[in-house]
Amino acid sequence: MENILHQRGRSWKSYSGSTFFGSEIITEPSGGWDGLELEFPKWKGSREDWASSKRVISHEKLKWAVFSFQPYKSPGMDGIMPIMLQKGFELLARKLLLLLRVSLALGYIPMSWRHIRVVFIPKPGKPFSQAKSLRPVSLMSFILKTLEKLLDRHIKDGVLVERPLHQNQFAYRAGMSTETALFQVVHRLEKSLKHKEIVLGAFLDIEGAFDNTSFSAIITAARERGLEETCCRWVRSMLESRPVHTSIMGSSLTAKVVGGCPQGGVLSPLLWNLVVDRLLITNDLGFNTFGYDDDIIIVVQSKFAHNVREIMQEALNVVVKQAVKVGLNISPHKTAIVPFANRRNIEGLGPLILYGKELTMLDGVKYLGAILDSKLNCNQHLQKIINKVQTTFVVVRRTCGKNWGLRPNMVHWLYTRVIRPSILYDALVWWPKAMQKNHKNPIRQDSKNGLSSHYGGYEINPYRSNGDTPESDSVGFGNSGGGEDGTL
């Protein structure tokens, strides 16, 4: 893109400073953005380029990609919504097929596809005075996103079948979720504690994961995975040649993107996975790595504390070295070191050093919404769930009314769609602890409150002769559970 502007006699370096990570402010050319469109590229593409474009893009795949979008998703700057492509697909299919194949074979992105409108979504609980408290979401052309989706399918169905991602990479993969990652991590910790080993967990956070990843690191990771050069050239062109436009409180600016993946792009999660997968190391040094998005966990276990410390320090050095290679930075301030053991006193686990700074040992850490304490008894996490449910229930009762409330079906909907999901999240991790009496009674009380509101009973009315909650309704009530009888 910089070369394009220099060929027009203008300098791309006309910027006044940085607005957010991975970007530089630029000014709109005097002739407008449309004046930057160049003549047809001189590169005509090799025979292999055209063959690759035909393998990636066929009529059937194109139809699948177009109709996979929700019809009324927010459009990019070209104003084209998916419903337009879907309703006119029979008329547009032939020309759209040729257009996408040409774009991929030549590695060229038309100017109307490149412009991206960025909107900022506030992160909950973050102060608006900091730029990091806003999440930039890219609204891109759906024609470009259609080609992204076709490439995403090509990589998943072809490249990653031959060279799959690390088995402990759980983000942005079919059949995997935060609960899958939590279960695997906790299972590893519990297995080591069962064998009376000392376990040390390092919870690492990558700073500005989507924003700071270099284009070179992304393309290198794709090439190493075996992606064809035709596709790699198109991905580089898509990443490097996208000016972003944003408007906040009446002020507008345009920025040149110098790094990272567009948040909101179809291909971005997969490209990030290819990069971060290099940090998930399969080794014989005695440590395991787990990854979800920008959260990396290192788990080390041994019978002896000094062995745990030595292995963990070596693991930190190895992961940091790999992070530097791909242009990523691990934040020492957000890194948590938690020892897991049944012993009361553990000595010899520290100090651990990251980027020259000593890391502090903690008694627990919040990971993917779950609180993991050093004994893995889940007391803090269950108490957090109970408090959250009780607070939410009070808010729901205000909506339902003081005595008889709304209709039972509405109360049933509020309970099953608002309250119960907050209880069941991460249940694969903490459910054995919920069977203990000190945790079972508060959860039963929550269910009792739900039943009382559901059937419009007063607080003095017993809903069971012995005053206890049915075992099958400890989390759900009536036919609201997972099975026909109301059980989970």
Structure commentary:
Strands 1-6-5-2-3 form a 5-stranded mixed sheet, with no helix packed on it. Strands 7-8-4-9 form a 4-stranded antiparallel sheet, with helices on both faces. Helix 3 (59-67) packs across helix 7 and helix 14 (379-400) packs antiparallel against helix 15. It has helices at residues 2-7, 47-56, 59-67, 82-87, 89-106, 111-114, 142-162, 178-194, 209-212, 215-225, 229-240, 268-276, 305-325, 379-400, 408-424, 427-434, 437-455, and strands at residues 23-26, 116-122, 134-139, 198-205, 243-248, 251-257, 287-292, 295-302, 336-340, 353-354, 357-358, 364-367, 370-373. The chain has 488 residues and is of the alpha+beta class. 44% of the residues lie in helices and 14% in strands. The longest helix is centred in the C-terminal third of the chain and has 22 residues, at 379-400.
Which features does this protein show?
single chain, 488 residues, alpha+beta, four-stranded antiparallel beta sheet, 13 strands
Mean pLDDT: 79
Q: Roughly how many Å is the radius of gyration?
A: 27 Å
- Structural category is alpha+beta
User: Terminal Cα separation, in Å?
Assistant: 56 Å
- The global form is globular
Describe the biggest sheet? 5 strands, mixed
Runs in which pLDDT lies below 50 for 5 or more consecutive residues are: 1-21, 33-40, 460-488
How many distinct helices? 17
Strand order of the largest sheet: 1-6-5-2-3
Give the topology string: H per helix, E per strand: HEHHHHHEEHHEHHHEEHEEHEEEEEHHHH
In total, the number of strands is 13
Strand content: 5-15%
Approximately how much helix is present in the residues?
40-55%
